[in-house]
Amino acid sequence: MRLYFETSFGSLNKKGEELCGDKVELLRREGDVILVLADGLGSGVKANILSSLTSKIVSTMLAQGATIKDVIETMASTLPICSERQVAYSTFTFLHIAQDGEAHIVEYDNPELVLLRGGKRYELPRCELTVGGKSIRETHIRLKADDRCVLFSDGVVHAGVGKLMNLGWRQENVVKYLEDAYSREATAYSLQSLLLSACNNLYMEEPGDDTTVAVIRVRNPNIACVMVGPPVDSSDDERVVHELLKNEGTKIVCGGTTSQIVSRITNRKLKTVLNYISPDVPPAGFIDGIDLVTEGVVTLGRALELVKRYESGTPGRENALNYKKDAASQLAQTLINKCTGVRFMVGRALNPAHQNPKMSIDLNIKLRLVTDIAQSLQRLGKDVAIEYY
User: Fold this and answer.
1) Most-buried pick from 12, 66, 344, 351 (CB within 10 A)?
2) d(CA 87, CA 112)
3) Which residues make beta-bridge pairs with 121?
4) CB neighbour burial string for 106-134, b if at least 16 within 10 angstroms, e if fewer
5) 202-217 per-residue burial string, b: 16 or more CB within 10 A, e: under 16
6) CB of 11 within 8 A of CB of 110?
7) What is the mean pLDDT of the chain?
8) Beta partners for 114?
């Protein structure tokens, strides 16, 4: 069975540095995910260049079909050794997950990757090998739905050293924190954000080292089917509604006229849900068998704002999914959290209400909103398709 991999990563720069000495490279190809986390020695410009070079070489070679042995030998022979510290100028972890969940993990001097299964650390079957005189940890394992893979640089295990903790946070304490923070419904971003925030607190908001966290959440696919607007040819109404109904994932209807069409063809009553009233967004509706029914343009516009705020990665991202119950928040939450991909079925019939000269609604605004939402979701790593009727 094909799985979906939700990803999120973030960094704290060492105090006083404009550039981060850690680098995450993420590639997606044909359902597979390749993630590389490299940690350059020291901090600042030199560390940033070294980690960027390392992550790019590793991910590019892997994406072009090089064997793991070729990658490791190339990196092991390329990375120099610091004459003073006798350690490599850059360390790295890379993780390649096939769409069926088969994972190959290679770790070189980075803290051990943590796999959470059922909310507890799962001991990986690591084997040690030596390539070019360097010790490498290698793991082959099949991941399951709801697993979390947490990768981090040594800035995490050193958090608090010299401040709140004599020896830093240490790996075993990080694992305990992740186990306590685990929630089956938690997104990859929320877990990554929690861990990074904890590190920042231990550093008393003055990081003594570059600190990076990357999280992969393994999920069963849930492709949402979103019907937006009635088809140009009304004879297609029944066909489009049946396409919506046969979708095995989440079913969403946006638009007053559209919801009336669905109600008529399915012979299921359309009701307005008034248990949550918002002055900015029209109320949601309800049709038996449909997961979410909303108004059209206004709701889509507000949902786009929330999706873009989440996508931006700024501090405001934490407030984008505030779990309000208005229709726009529910739509954004569903598209971001519950769905791994989206199929938009967009009708291009003109809405008679938009012909009113007193209304300033652009006739093409619906199409633009759907396109903008789709592009944001694609940048979040979701599979998105748009079909027009």
Assistant:
1) 12
2) 17
3) 116
4) bbbbbbbbbbbeeeebeebeeeeeebeeb
5) bbeeebbbbbbbbbbb
6) no
7) 88
8) 150
